Fold D-malate dehydrogenase (decarboxylating).
Amino acid sequence: MKTYHIAVIPGDGIGKEVVPAAVKVLHTAAELHGGIKFEFTEFPWSCDFYIEHGKMMPDDGLEILKDYEAVFLGAVGNPRLVEDHVSLWGLLLKIRRGFEQVLNIRPAKYFKGLNSPLADPKNFDFVVVRENSEGEYSEVGGRIHKGEDEIAIQNAIFTRKGTERAMRYAFELAQKRNRRLTSATKSNGIFHTMPFWDEVFNELKADYPDVAVNSTHIDALSAFLVIKPELFDVIVASNLFGDILTDIGGAIMGSIGIAPSANINLNGKYPSMFEPVHGSAPDIAGKGIANPIGQIWTAKMMLDHFGETELGGKILEAVEWVIAKGIKTPDIGGTATTAEVTEAVCGRILEK
Amino acid sequence: MKTYHIAVIPGDGIGKEVVPAAVKVLHTAAELHGGIKFEFTEFPWSCDFYIEHGKMMPDDGLEILKDYEAVFLGAVGNPRLVEDHVSLWGLLLKIRRGFEQVLNIRPAKYFKGLNSPLADPKNFDFVVVRENSEGEYSEVGGRIHKGEDEIAIQNAIFTRKGTERAMRYAFELAQKRNRRLTSATKSNGIFHTMPFWDEVFNELKADYPDVAVNSTHIDALSAFLVIKPELFDVIVASNLFGDILTDIGGAIMGSIGIAPSANINLNGKYPSMFEPVHGSAPDIAGKGIANPIGQIWTAKMMLDHFGETELGGKILEAVEWVIAKGIKTPDIGGTATTAEVTEAVCGRILEK
Ligand SMILES: CC(C)[C@H](C(=O)O)[C@@H](O)C(=O)O
Ligand SMILES: CC(C)[C@H](C(=O)O)[C@@H](O)C(=O)O
């Protein structure tokens, strides 16, 4: 019997509802498998924690999390209690950075039964590999002068190493999928970093002759995801561009509430972290109607990461079946509760 | 009789076809008006010009253009002849910068008869005020080291002056429209510049108590333009964010081929420049089937800028009528030629 030790941080708002739902699904998946089990250790780090302790997590928080095989996060943030940049840089981004989770992987796909805003969404299915450690999100920069003379500077920093590992991961992912890779660029408007990004991409592509590549400017690419999302297989993008493209991915699926993400540590020194793309939605928290699908799909990504891809596939199949059946929370046009959707997913996993 | 002196740069590809079409529409509008006329002076600056002269325009190009009342541009770029960053920084961006065209204004609206990719596009109608002089498009930054040690740095630079003038213009535009203004931000992920952007916005809003404001992160905002574009009236955005949002605007209209833009000089020292959002589309150039609507709508923005708003309104009305009638080029699902669409627009302007 293999046991996976997982640190669980439900976080704020609906995180506290959807994380237990996904935990239940994971236990159900383990039951089906027979040969694995999950041991979850929960940490209450959140905006409430901040109110009590003046910090989003203890000073030795990363030390505490370090030896788990993965971190399973709900959602962070409650702007009524704590300013966003404090809550995010004090927890979410601290873990992403501290654990060298240098990539953020986010799939988007068409689901039958979801109300895509697109007239003809076709059967799109793509994955964005987002660089997650540098680029536009660097902490380098600052401000000078006050009042009418004030200037603020943000340095976007791209290293060869950071750029190359994101791209190689994306090329390899494309090889396992449909062998098409799109690089999100802006080398016609952003002078120093994006031409560099393109050069690295053009150099690396020689190593993956079986992958069909193309480079598209972020403005046009954002538009293409709305017009023809079915064209894409794997997209590799910088930190900011990946952030934008994945929210568009959520939008065209018909709900940002269902998109998952994986923050991947590549050097094996620290755990990876799995979190849905949605926020903490304080407005609907506590009502039992939060959509658990994003968190459940996130659990599937964690299983894939552990190499339990067959089990991961079962979860995704169950999710697709449940949505197609119309067992949906109100945010995606249904009347089911969080618990009902979760039950239905677990039921489907154990079926046959 | 008031005469407007306009410098015309058709540029590359389909620019050479759609600019003459829009010029024809402008002459027709003048004929209708009776009291104004246009004098156009054409400049052949383009990628072809580069091949011949090693530069996109003469060294004294800005000097030559300086005394015109406006620059009317087609499209720039032909990557088969000249690398994009050369053609753009050698002409388009040189004029935007040199003539202190510090704002870029881009409307997006629903057109009956256009095939929006949205299932239910409602009757959206918004304008993006894009900061056009600084931000992410600064020339500051560079690269160091080679090979695996290489690092590229791009400085995004936001000044109080640059930020404030874009926002005030947007507030005033909102006052003339439906009194709603959305600020595109990313203060939760981009550490130095976007919190500054938010502070300026929050300070200025006190001066415009009649405008309802909100700040939305660029990722969520990109998604909202797909999900509920009808929510928006005026959006103020940084250079890069505005670039992305306006391409999404084009996408949801059903064609990037019809979106116009105005590059506005605010200090009165230099002319403003009017150009469609679309590129030079070398693949369909020379076939007589380029869509002239973007360039014609751009002409309308130029008229508005001259204060000829009634005439501008006539052009837009004619465009809407022609599209609704189905007189459309192939890119938007019709069979009409550039000339036929142009004729129809002119005919409608002179009607009744
Ligand atoms: C060509 C490019 C530099 C330009 C920009 O990003 O500003 C274009 O995309 C635009 O929007 O006018
Ligand atoms: C909360 C914010 C900092 C974050 C990001 O931009 O990375 C979020 O939008 C995300 O995509 O996970």
Remarks:
- Chain A touches chain B through 66 residues (CB under 8 Å).
- Residues 289 and 338 of chain A are 5 Å apart (CA to CA).
- Residues 116-253 of chain A form a domain with the Isopropylmalate Dehydrogenase fold (CATH 3.40.718.10).
- Chain A has a mean pLDDT of 96.
